Amino acid sequence: MDMYKKIEEMEAKRSKVELGGGELRIRSQHKRGKLTARERLDLLLDEGSFVELNAFVEHRATHFGMEHTEAPGEGVVTGYGKIHGRLVYVFAQDFTVFGGALGEMHASKIAKVMDLAAKNGAPIIGLNDSGGARIQEGVVSLDGYGHIFYRNSIYSGVIPQISVILGPCAGGAVYSPAITDFVFMVEDTSQMFITGPKVIEAVTKEKITAEELGGAKMHATTSGNVHFTAPTEAEVLEEVRRLCTYLPQSNRENPPRREWEEQGDDWVEALADKVPVEGTRVYDVREVIQAVVDQGDFMEVHRHFARNIVVGFGRIAGRTVGLVANQPKVMAGSLDIDSSDKLSRFIRFCDCFNIPLITFVDVTGFFPGVNQEHHGIIRHGAKILYAYSEATVPKITVILRKAFGGAYVALNSKAIGADLVYAWPCAEIAVMGAEGAANIIFQREIADSEQPEETRQRRIAEYREKFSNPYVAAAHGMVDDVIDPRATRQKLISALEMLEQKKESRPAKKHGNIPL
To answer: Which residue among 81, 131, 132, 171 is the active-site one?
Structure first.
């Protein structure tokens, strides 16, 4: 037999693998409004850049009931390619083969490509579409999940890890995405849950649909398990590509920097009107962020979860930055349990991957209430203090308006490691607002006064002048400069340039013990 015959056999075998579960199952996948694994990779990666690995891997024929069962590619496509010209490693579960169920060799393929990503310092992106563990392989399939979970954990903070949920994700399968840095879901066609609706109904008698239990909307708004959603697979994958433009390849390098030319527009006149001086008036802090970042381009993370805090990525003078801001439109921008978790996780991601942090503060404090106390606001709020204190990346704070109580300290104050703290002229920095403080300190005087309201207003004004204006904090070195709001972008550009070579060490230790 000559070499050409061997090549023909190889190509025939490869074509069979590329067809996955066959035309009938591919049509079934399309009828559900879903793409195949290879179609998804075509959308995710730069055209023609995908290189497949381990295409001919097969399961062991000794597994129960699988002696004569074919599973082309073992139900998962693995390899590497490029996004905007930069290397990424990928795996895409193939629902047309065994419903994408994970078995021993399926897991082995994923583990191998994860190892390659870590060795070569590039992101790993997983496209998840699986019915869960392969029952026919018993405990071996569960062991396969363990190998993946281990790598998710060990490579956390080493390379960016992104999970895209493109179908069902149940049982143990949900824990790999949960460990990764960012999770994307498609609205109406993706679900994640530990136990499905039928099991829940059998055990607890509760009736619920799969979408209500673990759909994209629920996870984006209630559980906080998903960071980004979009209506279609194509839109989700385009958002993954967009996210990658902000991220470094690994923890060994800085984020990519875009070309930027000074255009004389760094003095932002509109910022003078974005934040009302009156502390009780609301505004959308996203408008402040968009006025500061390049071209107003802000990629918000966890947009629909814990909306009292805003986090996401942008660029300032071409540099990637992580942006954090209280949102006065929701709960007056106060911090609660969910926002504490959301914020702490984001801070730690940025610190892992050398992304400078900019914090815009307008906070009344931690949100009060019995429910918050009983569910551990102390522990959850402490995560913010820990995350900011632990972070060694450049950290800049801009106090827009209110900065009260422990929340002021927690939100990257000078005391817990901020490199630079700026304040706008209308900023109030104190234990509490002037109204509340005056009512407590001068309670008796106000009550005994012949004109109590006039006395109260006078004392409020005195307290604000003596204790809560930004110049008091500046006099103690807790604020580096009181700035014109319109100069905010200029100040941030200068600060980021100054801090570019920042190096900061921490005491030697195995790792800290964040209050999880």
So the answer is: 171
